[in-house]
Protein 1
Amino acid sequence: MTSTFKFPEGFLWGGATAANQLEGASNEGGKGLNTPDVLPGGKVRLKVLSDPGFDFELDTEKYTYPNHEAIDFYHRYKEDIALFAEMGFKTFRMSIAWSRIFPNGNELTPNEEGLAFYDRVFDELLKYNIEPVVTISHYELPIHLVKEYGGWRSRELVTFFERYVTVLFNRYKDKVKYWMTFNEINSSLHMPILGLGFAIQNEEDRYQPTFQAYHHQFVASARAVQLCHEIIPGAQIGCMLVYLPTYSVDSNPENVLFALQEEQIFNYFCGDVQVRGHYPAFIKRYFKEHNIELDIQDGDLELIKENTVDYVALSYYMSRTEKKDKKPEEVGKGNILGGIKNSFLKASDWGWEIDPTGLRISLNQLYDRYEKPLFVVENGLGAYDKVEEDGAINDDYRIDYLREHIKAMGEAVQDGVELMGYTPWGCIDLVSASTGEMSKRYGFIYVDKHDDGSGTLERSKKKSFDWFKNVIATNGEEL
Ligand code: BG6
């Protein structure tokens, strides 16, 4: 299909991943144990992430741990990057595992083997003119920082993070021009284990400790922006939000107000601090009503104000529909944020509602609010794939999903949105973050690895591989 719009010159087409979901080699190269290493595989993971009291201990008798081997990118990165290059990737989004660089998180000197691994990966990407886009912290924290410091509850993590990013910027200053600080920073409002490195123990934890931890991350992020600009002139560093445009179920003003308030706290709170450089007005009342009093040190607010991000990266998978007094049976089954089922939308096999127009709405809302370049660094369809007898994988459902979302981005560009690029999530099959499953596949490249841990790890191309290759080759004109 030929589209009617053009994406900007130099548009960054590519794919996105995260260290813990693809590298494997969890105890090689001097790496320390980290938070995803202790998360069990299978649907029990979602329960662990949502229920109070998780203790971050390994229990190999009871659970499997798919992130330990993942898809073994650590040893197979050359083969994988060659496939990305064949697809014509202009960019590759990946993350660095903090625990490879500082195994405990708080050492004074970094682990050379970890640094050298990422050197090899960046060199391989650059060999094919693929621009690395690096997430500094993607749902991963050395376990020592969790156990000894309580994760981001502790102000000391700001110092450790500063040490970590200083090492990264100095080491990779000639290789990496695009950075982002915390993956989906706003998601910790629902699942602090992944982003903040502590488990909710009781309802009170949702407020004071969570927002204090957020303040620490805002300070750390601002400091990273400052250091990035100092150490790598010309580099760009962004924030990264999971964005769900929030619709009211109807025009009842009570429901509209509720949807707005949910949107403010979830979609905008973090971005407002990182992009505008100050706490938004609406949060004052929220803090008061939830007895939150932040410990803000001298200089924090100035640092945040003076070191705002260069661009806004976002993941977009679904929209959210809200109603003030919803009944449990109205909640959509796959809605991680608890919105109600939207009768206008179909859902994925995991119940994630599919809404391409929601992406156009999101891009318009974010650009109106922040007037900063936007970068869609995650989007995609998690689906069960079937390997035919001849080895073919006909993932037309994935092509349909991506086509509609690319069309929505094209429309947003015509609406006036400044868009830097598009890196669909899990361009190669990898371990799901929320369920620890391999069978929830997003890739253009199939990996022979299964939920029970079996498989050869062999890579093969799905039908979407050639389709996306052509999308990139025509800069989005042929969809
Ligand atoms: C985003 C995360 O929330 O969504 C990724 O940044 C994650 O790490 C992706 O993998 C898809 O979610 P899931 O649970 O299907 O893997």
Protein 2
Amino acid sequence: MRIVDPANGQTLREMDEDTRETLTEKVSRARNAQRAWAARPFAERAEVLRRFRDRVTEQREELALTLTREVGKPIAQSRNELNALAGRIDFFLEHAAREIEDEVLLTAEAGGTEERIRHEPLGLVANVSAWNYPFFVGANVFVPALLTGNSVLYKPSEYATLTGLGIERALHESGVPRDVFVSVIGGGSVGAALIEQRVDGVFFTGSHATGTRIAQALAHRMIRVQLELGGKDPAYVCDDADPKHAAAATADGAFYNTGQSCCAVERLYVHQAIWEPFVRELEATVRGFAMGDPTDANTYIGPLARRELALATLDDQVADALHRGAKLLTGGRRADRPGFFFEPTVLVDVTHEMKVMRDESFGPVIGVMKVRSDEEARELMADTEYGLTAAVYSPSRARAEAILSTLDVGTAYWNCCDRVSPRLPWSGRGHSGIGCTLSTYGIEAFLKPKAYHLRAG
Ligand code: NAD
């Protein structure tokens, strides 16, 4: 497997992928190690994860540079991801103890029956991860999984393998036993071979297409499956919103991480009353984005991690939109430089017949559509198979909530977007997936309840 720097196409490293034999050996090691890990007092596991948090903080610069080199994430954004990681780990450290505590629902009085719930770890879980936020989407799974006593087979994306190995090293240095957290190296076929193994849960982050394949492959297994998938997230700017603020915020929501976020704003609806000032501000903001070397701290738009695959998707979406009557305000083509860069692109006069308003772009492209009323905006926002997030910009909370409450999405934003909090559940609806990470729901996901009916005699 070749690991490539998407900023220039050069090979960073070549590595062997796991084979069926190495995979079987890893599965058996991780399975055997799980019971002893689960038997350790919670405080010991928590201490190990606390050390991991400190370790990634100490190694921030080195880890950020590795992420930037192999994924192309602008270095300032790689640092942001690592800075925010500590807060996520802290949330899990603070709440996991309560989630695993026994619950006594009925005490045994005078020969009666005690009723108790005990929370057991799932056992061995497979964590098949994406590359776009490898620290976040990885840690959303392996941190609560380890805290609750599971062992983990972790397959980083083939586009973020070096970062995955950095995570593994930091966990082992912090005291997670080598067989309790084991990385699996390779692309899609290795992922497919991994989920076929005797694991007790599969926690996947990636595209709807792969999620569907995984759901089909696991249908007969009756194990816990969580699928955190893609999105086509809308934002609506009402006529009473401040166009300058809304344009700056939604542009950042659309183009941060070079548009490669599951919850990136991918569709913008703007009330006709503020269409002109909004679009003017949006265009100016996007034209101001610095594209270039991702190791430069001033760069905001980097190369695309999935390289040719991503460029081909964006070429196709733009060509389809232009063919159907859309107009380009900015960008619309590959950048004239080495590496896998696409110019930040704003399309107007778009319709829902166009791929750019229906299929996930996962790149620096946004379609903007004029609407006449909240009802029209609401209907267009709801016209999607995805259901990850939706945003409304307006000074009126009541107006925003009236729209957001009717949408079938896991996350609703008023005057903000592209935001994730460890305290709140992160979940998709429809093609955006099933299951939940983060919040206390995202800890419960790694536990199974056992009901005890206990009589003394
Ligand atoms: P992907 O589906 O191509 O790959 C994800 C992972 O699955 C990789 O590790 C890959 O090697 C593995 N894989 C591929 N085929 C497999 C198979 N048949 N069986 C098992 N594993 C297989 O997605 P990606 O390009 O890594 O990530 C981008 C996608 O992830 C986007 O759609 C994005 O929206 C989504 N995403 C969602 C969230 C969320 O929380 N909802 C977060 C980040 C990314």
